[in-house]
Design a protein that fits this description.
globular; alpha+beta; single chain; 5 helices; 30 strands
Amino acid sequence: MIVEHTRYGNNMITSGNEQFYYGNCEKYFLDYLKKESARNRKFKLVFLIFIACLLFLMFGFSKPMFAKADVDENIIVTQSSEIYLDKNFKENIKNKYSGSYINFPDIGIAHIKQTKYIKSKPIKINIVELNTRVNQNLKIQPTIPKTNLKSKSTVRKLAQANRGIIAINGGFFKPQSGLPLGTLVINGEILTGPIYNRSAFAVFEEGNRTYFKIQNVSLDIKAYTKSKMFNIDNINQPRMLSTYTLIYNSRWGEYSPVAPKHCYNVLIKDNKAVKISANPIKMDEGDLVLQGNKELMRQVIKDKEIYIDVKLPSEIANAKHILGGGPFLVKNGEVYVDYKAQKLSAIQGKNPRSAIGYKNDGTLIIVTIDGREEASVGMTLYETALLMKNLGCEYAMNFDGGSSSALYVDGKIVNGAVNKEGIAVSNALVVYENNPDEVKISAVD
């Protein structure tokens, strides 16, 4: 038998009678390798698909559903997200206020009517909950009837003049003139300063984010002339003490108030003191009148140039809007009524109430309580504070109440106001919807 040997890799393959056997082995081995390779490819493909799905799930749950992030990591809510959030918002409201009358005037806004009993006495309550995360087009802003601070109008008219969906009466005011008594800042302009450092409600807007703070407010106002630096006590407020130095501008009215005994008015135009008088001085837009003791005002007019620096507390210095009221009702999630510190003892007792607060999740809560009638006896400040805490407020404060208390919802006053319109007030807090698709046409030259 002749045996031939052929080298194939590292294997010796024998020909002759053994050739058929080894040939079949080779064919079998090659077929096996092909099948094994196919099985490996299939396994690798399944394994890669599994890893890809795992990564997708991990990435998907690391971001809020229905949302994407821009370069600044601000959440841009899509239409699907808005629908999802609104559905959850409505479900939460229905669960929280089960058995109460509930209305949804707009996306992210709920209106609830309740009747509670304290010592068998009925109390009618209107509640509005809204969340700007659910509806990012919602804007919250104080408003006044005219550019002149000494004016009044009803809450309904103030709401309708500002396309309001929701509106509530705001801070205290002088009934005769309508002058706001307390802090009022609109679009960053300080219109009036605080009285007795009372609490105020501040609205912040940062991109798509809106958030709130409630805290006591003071102003730090300093004036600088060539020879002096002195403090100024307030802006566009009545004189509380004879020693006060005050600023007035055209928001106060066409003329400054008459200077009291031992005081003078000084007209300031473009940082220059140009006129001194005990009588009212006419103010054009941009003018200031500084009112203080005669000796100080004589020095100001002599030095001619004056620079005035106004600072709010650092925590609310960047607020877009601030609306004063008081006292505190809830602080850090606990009942906290500091009516004595804020010199508001006169508003104790059961009365109609207006209040505002916010939750940690950004929900704003607006409340009115009917009072002074058989069907609703009203609440004390402590009872109102307990209500706001039970509604989930982390911080809450009192607005002007009594006959001023009025809540506007979707076209009408919904609480038991003195009349269908509510009385004329100095200011209101209005919630409106800013339509980003609204086209504004300007004149073309």
